Amino acid sequence: MSFSFPILPDGHLLAIEGLEPPHIGALLDLAESYALLNRQGKTQRDLLKGRTLINLFFEDSTRTRTSFELAGKRLGADVINMSVSNSSVNKGETLIDTATTLNAMHCDLLVVRHAQSGAPALLSQKVSASVINAGDGTHEHPTQALLDALTIRRRKGSLEGLVVAICGDVLHSRVARSNIHLLTAMNARVRIVGPPTLIPSEAMRLGVEVFHDMKAGLAGADVVMMLRLQKERMTGGLVPSSREFFRFFGLDREKLGWAKPDAIVMHPGPMNRGIEIDSAIADDPERSVIGEQVEMGVACRMAVLDVLARDLRRNA
Amino acid sequence: MRDLMIAGARLLDPATGLDAPGDLLIRGGLILDHGSNLTRPEGAEIVDAAGACLAPGLIDLRAAIGEPGAEHRETIASAAAAAVAGGITTLCVLPDTEPALDDPALVQFVLRRGEATGCISLLPYAAATKHCEGREIAEYGLLIEAGAVAFTDGRRAIGHARTMRLALSYARAFGRMVVQHPEEPGLAAGGAATEGELATRLGLPGIPAAAEAMMIQRDIALARLTGGHVHFAHVSTAAALDLIRAAKAEGLAVTCDTAPPYFDLNETAIGDWRTYAKLSPPLRPEADRLAVVAALQDGTIDAIASDHQPHDADDKRLPFAQAEPGGTGLATLLGVTLARVHGGDLPLLQALGLLTARPAGLLGLPIGRLAKGAAADLVLFELDRGWQVKAGALPGKAQNSPFDGRALEGRVVGTWKSGRRVYGA
Q1: Cβ contact B204–A138 (<8 Å)
Q2: Do B196 and A202 touch (CB under 8 A)?
Q3: Of A95, A114, A139, the CB nearest to B202
Q4: How distant is the Cα of B205 from the closest Cα of chain A, in angstroms?
Q5: Residue ranges matching CATH 3.20.20.140 in chain B
Q6: What angle do CA A271, A276, A281 make, to 5 degrees?
Q7: Which of helix, strand or coil describes residue A119?
Q8: Which residues of chain A are within 8 Å of residue B204 when distances are taken between CB atoms?
Q9: Per-residue pLDDT for B379 more than 60?
Q10: B318–A17: do the CB atoms touch at under 8 Å?
Q11: Angle subtended at Cα B7 by Cα B3 and Cα B10, rounded to the nearest 5 degrees
Q12: Where would I find the Amidohydrolase domain in this sequence (chain B) (predicted)?
């Protein structure tokens, strides 16, 4: 697949905000083709041959790191995982030191997860590699939004006009922010649903409708996207208890009944079963597309690596 | 010391409303006379002002300095160099240092270090509470005897209402003000930017703008209760200014200052994660900036202070939420204030008054004017001379200017302290 315009003109993927619909559409098309290849068991090991991809994770992650690792390996890159445990990160000073180290290693593609919003952007100013944000604080998680969009598109045909309800801890969710930017850019109708203590200030200015009641928020929804409720949020007093949260905002069979009969259920993982989602829903093959999300994750990350590598080849 | 005449200047004295061409004659470090066609004394040194503006040296009500305790960021000597380059001749410094200035010996130490620079009057605030911890009030009487100019916990809010009440009551006995950093600490805890759309987009923890107004409302009530003088530093929101305006109308001893970032920048300056624009209080939406300009115009704001806070690269080259808040402001205080003059928001004399006579009034000191017999603390500046703020090329040690890249009109060309030239060729 070739494109007549640069898909990621900065040479990085730091955020969904700022990407235009044609860019998003092109990434999804490319990802779709990789999804097909993956199902056929075909690989393209020459595409990133001789390139070094470093997974730099300042926060624990299993699925995102593994997904990038697999994506890089399927395209032939040398993949290295660097985990920097939180305890050893003395604030962000090491971020700049790490950048110096990575430059010396001639890293081509750098996948970064960090607990601080803006950390990948800061790194991108200091490293020569192309930087992919794999989740920064409460800011963005762009590849998650791409894989969610691809999953929805495959199930529903198009994103345009769909009603997507994003439910739970929106305040602390980078997944929600990236999804809001992507889905509104593609003309989906986005709702966010949660208790007021977990809804960010001025959220409606992001082009979404805000609901504090699941029944109203899920009414007529095509997609129900549940977010992970971080356990530490409860100790912060933002919600009084997990049982109260589950009672009013956890997705169970009854609440799902308020959405469209063919509504799909999504979750970025890892799930807190019995807190934001009932196991009966999470494991229901008729409604849950959580497994497909993981599959599309690898395809989307291959597409992003491919697009960034085209620029690497151009510069080489 | 030879007599000195600064000739051919535009004399500006906000205290009297003087704005006229003329000369100014200095003898023995004092202003001997000023006016047009002064007789030049035999042997006097002549400085040709070439029509530049000559005004009282600026009085900066609020600067944090690294000394004592954080000399790697800024020393008193380096801050003094930056201040005189900005036309400042009197600098009030915050007491929340390491250790905090809560002991007469420490106040005297800072005074002596200021004198040693030989170029500036350094006036230390003393801690309002011991160790600036907000619990027990400090020894106000002894601290005043040592040279403290007023009381504050600096960049920390006095959060406990009873402590603030005691501070205002007790300071009243000595006729001094208590300066508050007006931010409700519990509500603001952990925040990095003003709460709202931008903070939501950037995924940054927010500080609601109401954190400022509610602290000001509380302290106005305490001023009413105690009769004490509360002064609010770096006021930045429309709601807070409305409260202060009403308290002044009521006749309470309530005053305030603001700082250049709050009338020159708005929150969009933090876009792209610019940590140099991370300040405390955080930059606000445009509507608040406009309210600050309006409060400068109508006199609700009593002074413009630099709110100088030095930081080094290790403090600022971090993810936004982890970076230290605060920006330098000494060298840009006059230039950014003059931007409001050039922009048509403030008459020149009114703007200069906010930097000279009015802060002098708050401190109760006979400085900040071109009076005969007063110390010859002076600034000479070219009103229309353009320059660009460049972090890395500013005078002084700390370079973390929120105005990095800003083009300004109005540049200091000379500063005199007690008749001695301390800046400019």
Answers
A1: yes
A2: yes
A3: A139
A4: 9
A5: 58-368
A6: 75
A7: helix
A8: 117-118, 138-139
A9: yes
A10: no
A11: 130
A12: 290-423
In this structure, the number of other CB atoms found within 10 A of the CB of residue A8 comes to 20
CB of A117 within 8 Å of a chain B CB? The answer is yes
pLDDT tens readout for residues A34-75: 999 999 998 888 999 999 999 999 988 889 999 999 999 999
From the list B195, B204, B318, the residue facing A91 with the nearest CB is B318
- The b-or-e profile of A117-138 (16+ CB within 10 A means b, else e) is bbbbbbbbebbebbbbbbbbbb
Give the chain B residue nearest A136 (alpha carbons).
B203
Among the partner residues A91, A93, A201, nearest to B200 by beta-carbon distance = A201
Closest C-alpha among B403, B359, B128 to residue B257? B359
- Do residues B128 and B187 touch, judged by C-beta distance below 8 A? no
Gap from B290 CA to chain A (nearest CA, Å): 21
Phi, psi of B303, deg, nearest 5 = -160, 155
A224 neighbors A263 (Cβ within 8 angstroms):
yes
How many CB atoms are located within 10 Å of the residue B290 CB? 14
The Cα A219–Cα B17 span in angstroms is 68
Q: How far apart are CA B368 and CA B15, in angstroms?
A: 8
How high is the pLDDT of residue A102? Answer: 85
Residues of chain B with CATH 2.30.40.10: 4-53+375-423
C-alpha closest to that of A218 among A178, A261, A171: A261
Contact criterion met (CB < 8 Å) for A117 and B202: yes
A103 pLDDT more than 90: no
- Which has the closest alpha carbon to A54: A118, A122, A104, A117? A104
Tell me which residue has tokens 């759309």: B197
Closest CA to A136 of A116, A151, A165: A116
- pLDDT, one tens digit per residue, over A206-238 is 999 999 999 999 999 999 999 999 776 666 789
Between CA B221 and CA B228 the distance in angstroms is: 11
Q: Pairing state of beta strands B18-27 and B4-13? A: antiparallel
With an 8 Å Cβ cutoff, is A118 touching chain B? Answer: yes
Query: Cβ contact (<8 Å) for A92 and B196?
Result: no
A203/B200 Cβ within 8 A: yes
B315 is catalytic: no
pLDDT score, position B165: 98
Q: Is A201 on the interface with B (CB under 8 A)?
A: yes
Residue B294 pLDDT level (bands cut at 50, 70, 90)? very high
Bridge partner list, B19? B12
Complex confidence, ipTM: 0.92
From chain B, pick out residues whose CB is under 8 angstroms from the CB of A174: 203
What is the arrangement of strands in the sheet containing A109-114, beginning at the earlier edge strand? A78-83, A52-57, A109-114, A130-136
DSSP B225-272: HH---EEE-S---HHHHHHHHHHHHTT-SEEEEE-HHHHH--GGGGGG
Residue A85 CB contacts under 8 Å (≥ 6 apart), including other chains: none
CA distance B397 to B84: 14
B204 by DSSP, 3-state: which? coil
> Cβ of B322 and A138 within 8 Å?
no
Query: B268 is written with which tokens?
Result: 């969009």
CATH code for residues B58-368: 3.20.20.140
Selecting among B96, B307, B315, B377, the annotated active-site residue is B307
User: Residue A5 region, left (φ>0) first, then alpha (ψ -120 to 50), else beta?
Assistant: beta
